[in-house]
Amino acid sequence: MKRKYLTILILLITVQSVVAQVTFKTVVSKSELGLNERLRIEFSIDRQGGDDFTPPDFKNFKVLAGPSQSSSFSSINGKTSYKLTYTYVIQPTAKGTFTIPSATVTYEGELIKSNTMKITVTDAIEIPEDPDDPRYIAQQNIHLVAEVSDMTPYVGESISVVYKLYVDINQVNVQNTREASTPSFNGFWNQNIEVKKWVAKNGTYGGKPHRFVIVRKTVLIPHKAGKLEIEPLEMEVTAGVPMGRRDFFGNMLMNDVSFTLTSGKRMIRVKELPTEGKPFNFTGAVGDFDFSVTPSKTELQSNESAQIKVALKGQGNLKLVKLPGIESSNGLEVYDPEHKESIKTTLNGLSGSVYDQYAVVPQSRGKFKIPGVSFSYFNPKEEKYYSVDTPPIVLNALSGVELSDENVVSNKQAVISNEGDIRYIHLKTDFVSVLEDEEFFNSDLFYLLMILPLLSIPLGIFIGKKKRERDSDIIGNKRRKADRLARKFLSQARKELGKKEAFYIALEKALHNYLKAKLHVETSEISIEKIAEILNNKQVDESTILEFSKVLENCDYARYAPSTDVMMQQEYENAKSAISKIDKQL
What's the DSSP call for residue 169? Predict the structure, then answer.
């Protein structure tokens, strides 16, 4: 009898534990979808009190919406049920079979994981031509277009890309838009022109009247010849399609649909600059320019300075041009130039002026001649090279000590005899027998070695105390660890300091390798704006993101612009600082 009661008690305890078990599961709307389709994924827990919900890493997917949270409660025949659901809408970014990891939630202090889900992504599917399908209607009447000003520019010639959104307002109504991914411009120097406000204008698309807005404007300058591909701009669009019915107040009822628009890839065929007629001193200036070298004054006193301005103005690749320098003469001190720019970016390219201003100071009385400067450029409209030779500048120092032969620094050096460097071989030695030395036992060295372990005890205590203090310094340890990590990734760039192109290539590669190691994403193929967005999602502060992005931008720009050892050293320190800050925050 007792055995019977014991069995019943065990069964009751087992049933109670099963009933009390928490269920946290993942459900998807489909396990196989096309590259252009969306997936609805839900994470549900059947108990109240679930806290600290953490979604999985949606690698190979982008989140379009979510998390949206909903809960339900019911009681039927005394049996109650509860359900809390977190919902996301995601879209794949690549083809293949992927596993979505578990989400986690905390229930009564215990971490609970949901089940994983395997998703198969196939090629993009075609939406069937169904005139009654709101999604089909929307995609047929909304278009994203990339208009390129010139499909066959020369190397260094500015072109523009204007992205326009065309809408047939008689068929659909655009309610919301969001950039899903920004285009990458590999092989181009690029700069966006801010679009402050979308202004709707009348236009045509496919021979039909449409309204359009400009959503993005970019100026590009190719820096190599060949076929260069402009990646597409992608936008998430939510549109309302009329249902053909009206509500009680006479307003047209809309069926809302969301989908992704793409501008498509554009292939640019960049032409090499012609070799015929190319001047020997041509350094890559492409455009229509005026070049000048002018002094602030030509008569001055000893130790009084004059300013020599080497200026270039006009329209072309001004940000990528290296201005020629001026040559000094004996008795005239020339200081490093101050570089200044005043450049405006429009759809027609870069226009304005750049100049280097040199300070020159005569060291004695007399006349000093600064040779003329030669500059050449290629005009892509005329397909012709031009060379400009400026006249020499003569500076007249009216006072000071007249330069004489004694003031001229001679390169002659006296011959120094090396007779004293010869050493003769000694034929006699001064060996001393070691047998005559004092015995080691009871010697000074013997007693010194005896007390040495005792002296090391307080030293060991001191070193141990310092080590404990260092180990307890959490912030300092994080800083030192981050600094070591930064030096590790930047080691190759440090070796290339002084070699401009090799240094900036190594520096850019180090930054991308660091992000790949820390974020587990391939960043070399995505834009700087996308990298900034990823870091922002990882809770990295804005100032650090700006500092990191600035170094990446400078890497791309500096390879085709003048740079000094000081500038390279500064970029190295900036990169080291940015990596350290990001690593501490991650």
Answer: T
CA distances from 17 to 11, 49, 295, 312, 333 (A): 10, 18, 92, 83, 91
| CA neighbor of 220 nearest in space, from 248, 194, 254, 186 | 186
Q: What's phi and psi for 240, nearest 5 deg?
A: -105, 125
Distance (Å, whole) CA 89 – CA 58: 11
State the amino acid at position 364 in one-letter form. Answer: S
- Lookup: tokens for 497: 């300091």
Cβ neighbour number for residue 257 with a 10 Å cutoff:
19
CB 254 within 8 A of CB 173: yes
Q: Are 277 and 378 in contact (CB under 8 A)?
A: no
In 3D space, the residue among 317, 308, 310, 270 whose CA is nearest the CA of residue 289 turns out to be: 317
Q: In the prediction, which pLDDT does 386 show?
A: 94
Short-list 145, 153, 276, 281, CA closest to 213: 145
**pLDDT tens per residue, range 411-452:** 333 334 444 444 545 555 565 555 555 566 667 777 777 777
Least confident of 43-52, 283-292, 390-399: 43-52
pLDDT tens track for 343-358:
999 988 999 999 999 9
Q: Which of 524, 522, 574 is nearest to 544 (CA)?
A: 574
**Residue 174 has what DSSP assignment?**
E
| pLDDT tens digit sequence for 37-79 | 778 888 888 877 667 788 888 888 888 777 787 777 666 666 6
Phi, psi of 457 (to 5 degrees): -65, -55
Q: Tell me how far CA of residue 264 lies from CA of 145, 232, 233, 267, 527, in angstroms.
A: 8, 5, 7, 10, 17
Q: Which two tokens stand for residue 486?
A: 């930064």
Whole-model pTM? 0.53
Tell me how far apart the alpha carbons of residues 84 and 51 are, in angstroms, rounded to a whole number: 11
The total of other beta-carbon atoms located within 10 Å of residue 204's CB is 10
- Distance, in Å, from the CA atom of 28 to the CA atom of 585, rounded to the nearest integer, reads 34
Q: How confident is the model at residue 129 (pLDDT cuts 50, 70, 90)?
A: low
